[in-house]
Amino acid sequence: MAETCKTCRDLLAAALDLCVRARKMDEQDRRVATLAASVDGASWVESGRFDEYVRRHNIHYPDRSIAPKSATIHLWVQEQYDTDLAAWERNARHHLTQGCNSPKDTK
Q1: Which of 39, 50, 54, 94 would bridge 44 by S-S if both were Cys, CB 3.0 to 4.6 A apart?
Q2: What is the rounded distance in angstroms from the CA atom of residue 97 to the CA atom of residue 51?
């Protein structure tokens, strides 16, 4: 099996981190959208029925989970994610076009 260069490993680790961050933001978006689509979201939350709905939903749809707790995604979190994603894409494209043969990419 061919050994993966350090840059490729670093890029993969960064990509996985970006995926986790994106999923967390998606969970919050789904929470907001679900409550917005309900007739009376506030009473749904206050009664505890929304928490039960989220729990059941997340069991049946783990790939489309809803955040169990509300956490407002501030604009700077989204901006930082977008900045990090653009930097990762730029670095990945550069490395893929240059290849893994540079001396600094060894172990």
Answers
A1: 50
A2: 48
